[in-house]
Amino acid sequence: MTDPSGASAPAQASPAGSVRPALSPARLAMRRFRRNRLALAGLVILALVLSASAAGLVWDRIAAWSGEDQPYREQLPGIHPQPPSLVPFHPFGTDPLGRNMLARTLLGGCVSLGVGLAAALVSVAVGTVWGTVAGYLGRGTDTLMMRIVDVLYGLPYILLVILLLVLFEERSVGMRMAALFLAIGGVSWLTMARVVRGQVLAIRETEFVHAARAIGAGPGRIIFREVLPNLAGTILVCATLTVPLAILQESFLSFLGLGVPPPLASWGTLASDALGALNPVQTYWWLMAFPCALLGATLLGLNFVGDGLRDAFDPRAQ
Amino acid sequence: MLHYILRRLLYFIPTLLIIYTAAFLLMRAAPGSPFVQERGLPPEVLQARAEKYYADRPVYQYFRYAWDLATLRGTNSIRYPERNVVRDILGPALPVSLALGVCALSLAVAVGTAAGVMSAARPRSAADYAAMVGALVGVSQPSFVLAGLLLAVFSLWLRWLPAGGWGRPSQMILPALALAALPAAYIARLVRAGMLEVLSADYIRTARAKGLRRRTVLLDHALRNAWLPVLGYLGPAAAAVFTGSFVVEKIFAIPGVGQYFVDSALHRDHPLILATVLLYAVLLVAFNLLVDVAYAWFDPRIRYD
Lengths: 318, 305
Fold this sequence. Notes:
By secondary structure, chain A is mainly α. Chain A has eleven helices and no strands.
């Protein structure tokens, strides 16, 4: 969805008389990204959601530090759930246990975004190393490592994730969170490994890598100075698109009762609790609407940004 | 080709063994036993039950369950002691899940391809933007939220369709829609990207220059090549539909396989856990094989040797 008409800066082979300095590919990509209105909108959405979640975390920390009950778990007196109101200040309403939905939704955002970021980090760390090693060494190592990825791809891994989480069911909150982060991160690196390996295979045969090898550069130098900088765009795109998938996985596990342990919340647990409260007699729309709206906006923003980055780094776009 | 299929079938067995072993180890490592819920049972009874399910002999249990499942004899479940996991539990549930899954997958392919072709035929038009934003919205909600929305709108509010159950075609519409949304959105994006790339190829210009109808160029010449990435995505799509069925079958009260998986894991029902894991694994691995064979059939450039 980039606009190719304005983005074609003649970086190489600029005509005589042009004084415009050559721009690096990264600068060109950033320029293309800035012209993509959808991607910028995604960035704005993400900034809003992130700052709101951060504010929720600060609110929670201040309450905990001043010795009050933390707002996400404090049960208010009276009849609940109550619809959204400004006085008392419950703009997202309250849940059936009388807890402030604003606090729960914002803190749930921190959890969901944390899961997404953790998965992206794991996929960058493991997937990049795996793909680079396989692609750079080639031959038998490559075949073996990619065969392993193929087999893992074919496995119904979600079954094993569920069994793994059941394993940690009765442990402490910290352990369960760690298991959840690892389980979701552990399945998200496969795509990254494949993409990175394909790129490394192509870059390994370029002239500048041959030149580096000719002046006596070792494998470490070639990988870190020549190959990886050229992969930065690909890795960034892939990591951005990993985050929404991980957030969806977490919500799926939350629905099955294997997500974050209560009374902690994530957007997934909030949405699945709201689904449980769905009935034909009385609609508690605010239980479902706010967490789902934030979840949807975040995933939409991440997908916009990811698509925008992909188009911006696509060499064919020039 | 035959050689390739045979070799892939050989991979089948180790793949299944890996999954079975991983599931077995995780299951045995999980805290809690399937028998502890019944408090107050004398130790002799517990001992007898553990013996009946070979829980005291892990190695024997590993091979015995594998053999019983491989020969489709199955063992009795622990949670429902009267019912055989193959004959009485998964056997009746499998056709239900398969029907729903096939329905959802075909719906996803049909809708996704149509939307992708439409938006690639007129890029940057209103229809293109609408289809692509729709596709992004489709991948931006968990399937259970979509299922809940469909339920609220079409069953509770408009009262057009039943809210759950199984047996009549009308009961299949909402769950199939909920399951199909995510793969349909991905397929639409794949088809659009593939079509845009193919449409700028020389052979398309030739076809247009020959004076072929637009429709023929789009559907016969372009789509056939642009559709290949969709084939590659069908494996993951099937996995998405299967795992989505855990959730959707629960919401719509459908007597399929999905409900048993999570319940059996939570209840430590060893025979049922292993049987369900293996069933899903066989289905997915077999489907992936089918997809790869279809690849070779669709694209004569691909050779397997």
